[in-house]
Design a protein that fits this description.
The complex is a heterodimer of chains A (about 140) and B (about 675). Chain A has four helices and four strands, in the order βαβαβαβα. With about 140 residues, chain A is of the alpha/beta class. By secondary structure, chain B is α/β, with parallel strands linked by helices. Chain B is globular. Classes of the chains: A alpha/beta (about 140), B alpha/beta (about 675).
Amino acid sequence: MADNREWEPKIVAFCCNWCSYGGADTAGMGRFQQPSSLRVIRVMCSGRIDPLHVFNAFLEGADAVLVTGCHIGDCHYVNGNYKTQVRHQFLEEMVKEMGLEPERLHLNWISASEGEKFANFVRDVTEQIKKIGPSPLKPEGVN
Amino acid sequence: MNAISRDTGAMSENRRFIMDQKEIINDTKDADEPRIGVFVCECGVNIGGVINCQEVADYAGSLPNVVNSSVNKYTCSDSGQSEIKQAIRDNDLNRVLVAACTPKTHEPIFRACVEEAGLNPYLFEFVNIREHCSWIHMQEKEKATRKAKELVRMGVSRAIQLEPLESNEVPVTDAALVIGAGVAGMQAALDIADMGHKVYLVEKNPSIGGKMAQLDKTFPTNDCSICILGPKMVEVARNKNIELMTYSEIDEVDGYVGNFKVKVRHKARYIDTVSCTGCGLCVEKCPVEVPNVEFNEGIGTRKAIYVPFPQAVPLRALVDRSVCIDCNACVKACNSSSVDMEQEDSFSELDVGVIVVTTGFEVYDPEPTHDFGYGLYDNVITGMELERLINASGPTMGKLVRPGDVTSPKRIGFIQCVGSRDKNSNRYCSSFCCMYALKDAQLIREKYPDSEVYIMYMDMRTPFRNYEEFYDRARDMGIKFIRGKPGKVTEKEDGNLIVRVEDTLTNSILELDLDMLVLSVGAVSGDSNERIRQILKVSRAADGFMMEAHPKLKPVDTTLDGIFIGGVTQGPKDIPYSVSQGSACAARATRYLSQGKAITEGITVDVNEDVCVSCGICVPMCPFQALSLEEGKLNVIKALCKGCGTCAVACPTGALQQNHFSNNQLLAQVRSVFAFEEE
């Protein structure tokens, strides 16, 4: 379906229940307006975010994937976000291997009170992705 | 589309038959092919004003396995919940999806609702189309509706994969820990103790009482602070259910609701607190004098061995070894041989069921930024320093003198909002500074009728009973109010201060020559709060204070079951409000203690033994030691598992799966983000 509306990227965000999901909620409560590009998937801890989920998101058509969690030292499960940080290095390598631009994968720590930060983050990433265009891995005809 | 009837009138024969059959249906419901009911909430205009909810519901009705979809005005209301229950019965639903607000507040409500209708609560799926959609795309109605449809599509795909889970019931240790013995903590401890439960009250300072013990008078009644607090402090010490641990710090907290294990460090006082009587003979003999920063804000001195303040509870001495010269004069002076220089820190391990955090606040410190010359000019002081200066038991016995030359100031100015309502320091209003400045100004005018007192303010904030009247009284007493924040403060040779301020009401620039300047500083959370917060993993709000579970409905709960916050720990507030929160914490916490049990989440990990190769990679991943390899087999201790799912990621064979967040469920969600555009 070809239409003339401006292309909007599709960004998948994995958010932990305690911090970044709450940050997205706080952004809503503060009515911080954002592009409608984001699709949030809630997990209990950022440590639950499997590279498998991230790769699948790219293969299905994500223009960018955001991995978010509690600030280091604030993890509800002691140190889940440290593991996320380590796994992220691997993810960055793999994103490169897959031929994707590094801007398509982001790791960010956002607390439940940082609604404005969450909104700015979504806005920034959406802008970046709009500049570089749709993901080369996006299957044809999919959005 | 298959909209459900809103008719809640007489029960039809058919329905009655279904209700009679409920038990039978329930047994088979969960195992059947998914039959999903989708309920799209308009939340008044919160969602309905942006998103075309009917379009979303219609779209949901076209998705696989959705047998019923409808729009409600308020799904969480009694009638909305009745509709869900009715739809479950009428349509044999075995999954329910609500597209509404955030699961953080409303998931428990809907889980309970579907459970009442006979569904396993974990077969409920929540889709957030308010905080994550309508509220953040208010000007883009079409895009918001499109996004809402996709979010519902993701939710449906996940709902298909949901599996029933059982919640766990855990026993609750019948004891509470209260951290911080200021007025809020004391109130919480007393209330819990009076309800018949054991309380450990841990205070980092050598005496209980908190900041309130330092104050001179309290607004709006101007009654003596320690006179109303002192008896309460004694009550705390006498209560048989309260075990007081002063000069003690929380080192570690482990466990979960009902079963917290707490390690407390009792700092060495170098005094045997059992035999010490607080007589003060040792203090008299001690030759070392240092500024009294602990209680008198650095005004006046104390000895190396000292009793915190005359009304201290417990009234016992302690030795500051960092300044002690080991002359042993105190050891010789003590009649009861209570001084023990060899004492070391000791430790206690406590088992408690609930934790109340009332760790209070620090006063904002204007020193590093030299706000209005503080720290540069001797006669610029903070509100807390003034409290000690005008306190009858303070270092000057209540005689107001200025620090520069110890003379009585005649012209005194207050500057409001120092370190508050300022983007460069703290954005928030500390709420009590207007009132304490009014109080101190009145006390000065009462004591020294020939004094001139100016209050320079941005806005006077005086809510609550008798506060505005208190402000009127200050005006009537001749206190001069200048609406404006000073631009510049300079010191003259005689120590007087020239304050340049614009009176924005008369549009004139004033230059005041004042003898002393008082900065009405606000509250900040401070390092020791931050340490406790990190130990407990309580969320931090943007202002640095601890964050409540819900700003309106759960003001003293945290997102962690069994942990409560009260008083200024949660944000700046005055004494009556802190006391109320102390009581509120006690009431909330005692629910667990009196029931003796708590329900914990059914979300844990499970191991598929057919796939597990016992490699053990997952074992060190678990921060709670819930995983172990025993005789070549992986063992999951459900009571220890908190369901973070970190181990499941590490598992190379996929044998470990986190319930409710399994790969199937998450991948279904990921896949359904996308669709061919023709759809």
